[in-house]
Amino acid sequence: MTFGIGTALTRDQFHCTILIITTGGVLAKKFEQFDTIRENCRKRTTKQAERMFHRNSKKGKIEVVLGTSVRIPVPLVDQAKCDQCNILGVVMEKIGGNFFHLETKFGVLEGGYTLNRVLISF
After folding, report:
1. Maximum pairwise Cα distance, the chain
2. What is the pTM of this model?
């Protein structure tokens, strides 16, 4: 089985010897197939991103009132084997923008939390 690889010696305009490696045949077709697959993947990824953007922009915005119960996911690095994956908390106050102070039975959590970091319990 040949891959269609050939070599040739030639001289350039400065009379230097250059080794030229040419590809053809099966190998060149494989490279063309890889390029078309990559291009199709790029197109599909951008199309999927556009669909996600339109789907999320159509959703209604959720308004959180004070006293709403939320589930707060605990990062894996902070969990022991027997710890829970989530902690229940309550929205105590709204800090400018979309940030909230949350309180659990263990006390008030430091920093502000946004809605994408917590799950609202209905």
Report:
1. 83
2. 0.47
Residue 47: CB partners within 8 Å, gap ≥ 6? Answer: none
- What integer pLDDT is reported at residue 2 of this predicted model? 40
The domain spans of the chain are 6-58, 69-120
Q: How far apart are CA 48 and CA 51, in angstroms?
A: 5
| DSSP one-letter string for 66-91 | TT-EEEEEPPGGG--TTS-SEEEEEE
In this predicted model, what pLDDT tens digit does every residue of 31-44 receive, in sequence order?
Answer: 788 889 999 999 99
| DSSP category for residue 50 | H
d(CA 102, CA 108): 6
* Structure confidence by residue, pLDDT tens digits, 53-101: 777 666 666 677 888 888 888 877 777 777 778 888 999 988 877 788 8
DSSP class of residue 91 equals E
Q: Which two tokens stand for residue 5?
A: 């690889």
Local structure of residue 77 (DSSP, 8 states): G
**11, amino acid identity:** R
